[in-house]
Specification:
It contains four helices and 18 strands. By secondary structure, the protein is mainly beta. 15% of the residues lie in helices and 43% in strands.
């Protein structure tokens, strides 16, 4: 049996292992994350405590995390998983109100805002949003490309996002040749005011729509600020109904992020012990759904 924790960050759900003797194998991650036939999750992460010697210079207790998408592939950053890792560290008593989380994309300072809300302090984006036009499903789709830990496509959607055919447009945007072999998360965004936007995301590695994507929210916020559509602070309404808040400081006449944080829901839901059935080889579906 394996002990796991189930966590959720604004609807992004993850399975977590605490200081495992070895990282989980890719096939194990795929089995665990399969919905309906196993535990089901958007991804898996591990956390471990970092010794005082290793964390010299960090202002707060430090943990290290590694994150894998549901397909078993390791990703440098998942913002919502990072906030969940911080919440789990708080729940385990490893830290009280602040913790530094080391990820594949660098260290991030996290703090507890309330019982179920964690804020993550981010480094400013290293690059500006790049205008792109994608030929998808027989139409030309304008948007922007931007990397926030992982690559993102930002596609503006002026109509109600509930009417957005994400299952049709998400996969070809996510795998478009402009993003090379790694592809990108496909974010469809409706800017509803200077401080608000709605967002839906088709995530690579999950290969489906998720209830939230933290780095996608940040990429959309930075793009909106640089294009003059948004002003900090901004509130992002996600598919799951949660609101993620991005705040900070801007430079260059308010068009470039100089410092930012993202805060929102992050909860530890349960402690689980798996049985063999959670790791059995799964049959292939008889019919592929669109």
């Amino acid at each position: 049996m394996t002990e796991l924790y189930r966590t959720s960050g604004a609807g992004n759900d993850f399975l977590a292992l605490v200081e495992p003797p070895a990282p989980p194998a890719p096939e194990t991650i795929r089995f665990w994350c399969a919905r309906g036939v196993s535990l089901g999750a958007d991804g898996v992460f591990t956390i471990r405590r970092v010794s005082d010697e290793e964390s010299a210079g960090d202002a707060a207790p430090t943990i290290a995390m590694v994150y894998w998408n549901a397909d078993g592939g390791e990703a440098a950053l998942c913002v919502n998983a990072t906030r969940c890792a911080a919440q789990l560290a708080f729940q385990l008593g490893w830290a009280e109100r602040e913790v530094t989380v080391r990820t594949g994309a660098g260290p991030f300072a996290a703090r507890r805002v309330s019982t179920d809300e964690i804020a993550l302090e981010m480094a400013p984006p290293e690059e500006d949003a790049r205008p792109i036009t994608l030929d998808v499903a027989g139409r030309e789709i304008p948007g922007w490309a931007m990397t926030v830990g992982v690559p993102h496509a930002i596609v503006p959607w002026d109509d109600d996002l509930a009417r957005c055919p994400l299952a049709e447009l998400g996969p070809p945007v996510r795998r478009h040749e402009q993003f090379g072999a790694p592809g990108a998360n496909a974010n469809f965004v409706r800017f509803t005011g200077p401080h608000d936007f709605d967002i839906r995301t088709w995530e690579r590695g999950v290969e489906g729509e998720t209830l939230a994507c933290g780095s996608g929210v940040l990429a959309a916020a930075a793009t909106g600020v640089s294009e003059g559509k948004l002003q900090l602070p901004v509130r992002a309404r996600t598919k799951g109904g949660f609101v993620l808040t991005v705040d900070g400081e801007t430079a260059d006449d308010g068009r470039r992020i100089a410092r930012w944080t993202m805060a929102g829901d992050a909860r530890v839901l349960a402690r689980l012990e798996t049985f063999a059935g959670a790791e059995q080889v799964l049959p292939s579906p008889l019919w592929d759904l669109p």
